[in-house]
């Protein structure tokens, strides 16, 4: 909020108002008496109650007095006093729990509003109100009525009626009997829903209208019809873990608890994120994506968790922006229904409601049998070459790519489950490029991106073709963040650019080491060994069957090695050796090129080295073949490149 602006002043005023109301009610409860000061107090007797636009409207008659000796039924009514229409907010109504025949004391500063062409004055600012129990008979009646639920008539006023549109939705024109819903402060359980089938009968198509009408406490009696644009998982905070799972572990991404979420859009183009229950398995996310994305569903039993804006949730709004503008005309209150007007020049959404399910109630009815909605926008699949040429920042992109190499970022101060992972990928559009664009790019997978167990196991097994859906592109990097989904199989619906991008034209080629090579990239290297760092060289034996590098001395024969994984004696161990060698490379003749190589990998470098020892002279002058390397660092002062030999998946 702008400092000193109207919005900031209004926010402070509302905070002071809420504090004053809470303090006044607490004082009344503590004293247990009606305030003695009756100056300016309006005393009314309720005749009828109904609800309209989240406001409780009470038709009342003013009383001259409310003697303590009389019950509300016997209170004196002045027939000459006009009927009053008293407005109570949702919070005040929940506090009063009023019924017809109740006597209410309304304390200043209440206000009387006189409307043109209306005979009944309207009483507003009724925050300081108190229901009066004038006798033991009334208290007994209150206790009896408190155990039963009261049906309050709701006058549903649609946005179409408010804006006087011609195309009124017939679904919203229902009789008053259909709009009778239980009014109670307690949460309905499943049994209550079955007892009141009409509570879920009304279907609306506007998220904003439901939020404005039902308020922050949520809605149960009316459903909202929306289209599921995206299905994904979000990491769940500690306080949001579900207790319904008992001791069974929830979906986990390296120990991270996750929650199933939907990004939905209504007929007016408005978006909301719906946070549902935790999943029992990470692999369920792909199943929900295939079954639900693009389908229409009805939401009920929702409550507002947060109203967020573009500045507070850049990741969410980058996904919303990728789905904007709508591909088909949407409804637009107050404007004519001209399709051209409703698909062009529409401002992108500036806010979004985060919805969650009411405690113990989940009502998301997806019609999986119906066709894909026309409002649905499947991910637009592009080649990596096209993505690298995008000028924008924080743009969502989807692509197929072959994963060549994965590497966990080694930041020792950060826990392993919170570290970023680098996936080096390529596709046919990069492999076919001669110059100017790298043949492999790094995709950074942040800790907040939920990976399924299937993806993690597949990448550990070898090179995989992976579909990256809704990754984030900006500042020359591709990042998998919250709301990014990785698949191993092709989605049923996608907008592909050109031919199939998943097939590589031949063997994978990497860029050679040159002056444009940057840190945290992979490249191919040729050169001549000109030096060896003997102080960092070391070797260790490994099992020739399973590759276990932690061999033990055999208990029966201390001269032999024993593998605990194979549970057998290792008679022919494989010796692994690490060396740091300095190379002379024509592509970077002015730079010191230091490469960490491995014995088992670099047979070309160490072909003259015996397994138990080595001679430096046998390595110097050796020509290094085409080595695949990861670039640790590139510095100009001193002019040095540090690399590590790697094996592609």
At a glance:
By secondary structure, the chain is α+β, with helices and mostly antiparallel strands. The chain is built from 13 helices and 34 strands.
Attribute tags:
16% helix; alpha+beta; 649 residues; OB fold (Dihydrolipoamide Acetyltransferase, E2P); SPIDR protein; eight-stranded mixed β-sheet; DUF4502; 4 domains; DUF4503; elongated; nine-stranded mixed β-sheet
Commentary on this structure:
The chain is α+β, with helices and mostly antiparallel strands and 649 residues long. The protein has 13 helices and 34 strands. The strands form six sheets. Strands 1, 2, 3, 4, 5, 6, 7, 8 and 9 form a nine-stranded mixed β-sheet that branches. Strands 10, 11, 12, 13, 14, 15, 16 and 17 form an eight-stranded mixed β-sheet that branches. It has a five-stranded mixed barrel with strand order 19-20-21-23-22. It is elongated, with a radius of gyration of 35 Å. Mean pLDDT is 77; it is low at 167-201, 238-255, 334-341 and 601-613.
How many strand segments? Answer: 34
CATH architecture assignment name of the largest domain: Beta Barrel
Helix fraction, binned, reads 10-25%
Task: Report the top-level CATH class of the largest domain.
Answer: Mainly Beta
Predict the CATH topology of the largest domain: OB fold (Dihydrolipoamide Acetyltransferase, E2P)
Shape category: elongated
Distance between the termini: 51 Å
Mean pLDDT: 77
Kindly estimate the percentage of residues that lie in beta strands according to DSSP: 25-35%
Task: Provide a count of the helices.
Answer: 13
Please give the domain count.
4
The major pleated sheet works out as:
9 strands, mixed
Rg, alpha carbons: 35 Å
Summing up helix and strand content along with how strands pair, one would put the structural category as alpha+beta
What ranges have pLDDT less than 50 throughout 5 or more consecutive residues? 167-201, 238-255, 334-341, 601-613
Protein name: SPIDR protein
Biased composition (Polar residues): 176-188
Domain DUF4502: 1-113
Domain DUF4503: 265-648
């Amino acid at each position: 909020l702008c400092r000193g602006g109207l919005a900031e002043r209004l926010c402070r005023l509302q905070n002071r108002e809420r504090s004053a109301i809470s303090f006044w009610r607490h004082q009344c409860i503590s004293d247990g008496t009606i305030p003695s000061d009756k100056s300016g107090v309006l005393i009314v007797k309720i005749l009828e109650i109904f609800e309209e636009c989240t406001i409780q409207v009470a038709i009342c008659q003013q009383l001259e007095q409310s003697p303590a000796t009389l019950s509300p039924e016997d209170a004196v009514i002045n027939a000459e006093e006009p009927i009053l229409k008293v407005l109570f907010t949702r919070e005040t109504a929940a506090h009063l729990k009023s019924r017809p025949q109740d006597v209410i004391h309304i304390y200043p500063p209440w206000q009387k509003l006189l409307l043109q062409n209306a005979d009944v004055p309207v009483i507003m600012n009724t925050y300081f109100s108190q229901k009066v129990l004038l006798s033991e008979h009334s208290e007994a009646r209150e206790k009896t009525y408190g155990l039963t639920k009261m049906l309050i008539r709701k006058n549903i006023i649609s946005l179409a009626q408010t804006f006087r549109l011609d195309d009124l939705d017939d679904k919203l024109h229902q009789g008053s009997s259909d709009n009778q819903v239980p009014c109670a402060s307690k949460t309905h359980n499943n049994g209550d829903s079955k007892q009141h089938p009409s509570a879920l009968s009304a279907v609306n198509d506007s998220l904003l209208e439901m939020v404005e009408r039902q308020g922050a406490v949520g809605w149960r009696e009316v459903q909202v019809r929306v289209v599921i644009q995206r299905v994904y998982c979000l990491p769940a905070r500690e306080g949001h873990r579900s207790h319904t799972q008992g001791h069974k572990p929830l979906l986990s991404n390296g120990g991270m608890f996750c929650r199933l979420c939907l990004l939905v859009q209504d007929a007016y183009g408005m978006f909301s994120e719906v946070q549902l229950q935790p999943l029992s398995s990470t692999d369920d996310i792909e199943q929900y994506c295939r079954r639900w994305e693009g389908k229409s569903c009805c939401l009920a039993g929702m409550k507002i968790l947060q109203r967020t804006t573009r500045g507070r949730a850049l990741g969410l709004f980058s996904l919303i922006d990728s789905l904007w503008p709508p591909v088909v005309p949407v409804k637009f209150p107050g404007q004519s229904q001209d399709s051209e007007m409703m698909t062009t020049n529409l401002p992108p959404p500036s806010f979004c409601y985060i919805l969650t399910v009411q405690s113990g109630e989940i009502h998301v009815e997806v019609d999986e049998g119906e066709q894909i909605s026309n409002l649905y926008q499947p991910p637009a699949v592009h080649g990596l070459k096209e993505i690298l040429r995008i000028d924008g920042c924080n743009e969502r992109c989807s692509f197929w790519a072959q994963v060549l190499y994965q590497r966990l970022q080694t930041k020792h101060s950060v826990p392993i489950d919170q570290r970023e992972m680098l996936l080096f990928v390529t596709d046919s559009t990069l492999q076919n490029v001669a110059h100017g664009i790298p043949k492999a790019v790094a995709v950074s997978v942040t800790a907040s991106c939920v990976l399924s167990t299937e993806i993690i196991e597949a990448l550990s097994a070898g090179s995989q073709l992976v579909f990256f859906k809704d990754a984030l592109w900006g500042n020359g990097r591709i990042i998998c963040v919250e709301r990014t989904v990785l698949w191993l199989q092709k989605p049923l619906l996608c907008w592909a650019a050109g031919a199939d991008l998943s097939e590589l034209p031949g063997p994978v080629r990497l860029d050679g080491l040159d002056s444009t090579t940057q840190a945290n990239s992979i490249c191919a290297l040729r050169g001549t060994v000109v030096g060896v760092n003997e102080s960092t060289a070391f070797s260790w034996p490994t099992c020739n069957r399973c590759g276990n590098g932690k061999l033990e001395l055999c208990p029966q024969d201390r001269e032999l090695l024993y593998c605990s994984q194979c549970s057998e004696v290792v008679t022919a161990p494989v010796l692994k050796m690490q060396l740091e060698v300095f190379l002379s490379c024509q592509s970077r003749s002015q730079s010191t090129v230091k490469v960490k190589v491995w014995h088992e990998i670099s047979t070309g470098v160490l072909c003259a080295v015996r397994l138990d020892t080595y001679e430096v002279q046998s390595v110097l002058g050796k020509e290094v073949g085409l080595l695949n390397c990861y670039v640790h660092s590139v510095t100009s002062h001193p002019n040095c490149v540090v690399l590590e030999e790697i094996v592609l998946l």
